[in-house]
Amino acid sequence: MSKKSICVAALCCLAAVLVCSCSSHSEGSSFISVLDSVDAAVSQNSAEDALKSLKKLEKKAYASYEYLGIVKRYFFLGETKSAERVLKKSLKRNPKNPELSAVYANFLLRENRLEEAFQISLCLKDSKYSSIYAECVLKKALLAIENGEPVLKSAFNSVSKKKKNKSVETKSSEEIKEIFCSPDFISVYKNAFDGSDESLWIFNAASIFMRGGEFKNAVALYPNKISSSRESLFWGCIFFDSGLYAESIAALEASSKLTSFAEKTDLSTKTEILSLESDGFYIEGEENSSEKIRQRLIQNFTEIPPQIYMNSAMFAKRKSDFESEQKLLDFLSVNFPDYLPGLAALGEFSLDQIKNQHEDFLSQKIRNAGLKTLSMEKKDKVPVVPFDSVLEKLDSLIASKNSEALVLKDALVTQKNKFDKIEKPVSDIWLMLEKNVSAENIYPESVLKHCVFSLLNENSEPDAEALFDSYYKSKYDFLPEDSPENLELWECELCAWFACKKGNFKSGISLYNFIAENYGNRIAALNSSSKNSSIINAFVNLGVLYASVDRLPEALNSLNIASAKSSEGKEKSEILFRIAQLEWKQGNLYGASRALKYALSLDSENNKVRLLQKKIQAEK
Fold this sequence. Notes:
Elements: H1 3-43, H2 47-60, H3 64-76, H4 80-93, H5 98-110, H6 114-121, H7 130-147, H8 151-156, H9 173-180, H10 186-196, H11 199-211, H12 215-219, H13 229-241, H14 245-256, H15 260-264, H16 267-283, H17 287-300, H18 306-318, H19 322-335, H20 340-355, H21 361-368, H22 374-381, H23 387-398, H24 403-419, H25 427-435, H26 445-457, H27 461-475, H28 489-501, H29 505-519, H30 529-548, H31 552-565, H32 569-585, H33 589-602, H34 607-619
């Protein structure tokens, strides 16, 4: 074929395309103009003319939007059968078209033709119309519950219609909740959210992930924008519980940028947002920012939880602002009389005042001369908290059978006795148990725990072990090392300690390792002081056990972790002494000397440290 012939053929093809295009455009314009005439007829109440025009248009329709235009008008005119007929026809020509499928599935749902709707909606999964698919699945699940059928099988698959089983047992609300908390529904909730933008659906999905410990999957659902204070609080909690504190703060701060925050957010939600934000800053080490938020709460809100006042009191204590600390603790004791952490802190405050009431010789001379130093003036401004008044507050709680108040009172009195150099008789411990027994060898857990540790402190190890053993056997029917995850932290610690005392080191190491692995990475701020103590003890005892079998690198690692977690001077000094012993044993004199020097700076009266220091200096 010559070049001229090829050019002619190409021009002919192009002309044909242009003609078809113009024809298609002309037909589209014609189709729309007929729809306009239908609308005009409807507006003039000429339904008959409108229906005639629509029937003619059905033959011309080809594209999905054309069919939708006809279906919309049939629905408007109440001609549902005609609308459905057109939808079926259009889906034959455009199978699984999302727009047509969405309209038809939605129509079937409203007609209570659930199985048909589900079949049509399958192609809508993970599309912008996915909420229709989600609605089908959830309705099928509810119907399966009502009919006593297997829920997951019925909800996610096509099933034939069955007669309702009359002997179906009605499920409780908790049982139904458990069904819908199944991980199988996560994708359904995500589809419901994607198609509706209703945040409650994504809350459901994230909550199920959190429940299963899948924190990464939960936070991955965080939306592109925060639209309400409720969303801000929810995602702040999700990030916080996942250990992502900076992200939690960012999610919570997003609420303050919403125009609705100041006007529409209820006080309880505002309080929760600011409280959690304050905790996040504290954990991130930004104490001043944390306290700034707490002061905003205290000064501007009336109903705030006692923890806010407590945390502010502890902040004041760390800053040596004892006047503010006393005011906050006194406020707590008056307005939250049954808040035990507040009473415990008030008791400690009173004991500190008793401990520091005697001034040194120089201070007495200055005071006798009618003068005061700045620190003396600061001290004099703080009202004295009578120790007996704290005990009276606790007595009122003890009268209402509050066993934890009884334990707190005994602990405070024991500390006071140490100041006064009064020895506590061991019989007092047994008397406490006797007064609080509810059945044979059955005691309130807080009382029993306190008494076991009190007996250990009094070197009554056999009695402590017998008491704990009796308690353990009445509560559990398995060996501690078989299921440590089912034990409380303090129970696990005692089981490990008693196991080692009996020479069962394998069990002891196993239990201490469980504590180290499952609690060791937690931030100290998230634990109570007793829990932190248990974790530190676990690492120290692991170090001792490893050292006893010459596993020195592992022993050193455990003791170094314990030292890093400890903030109490004497305790940290003792741990550093043990580290120095191991370093010395391995021939690392420099490492041992450095640990000893640090230990002495924390506790200058630790004579064991001085003795080892002399031995090492003699070897150099």
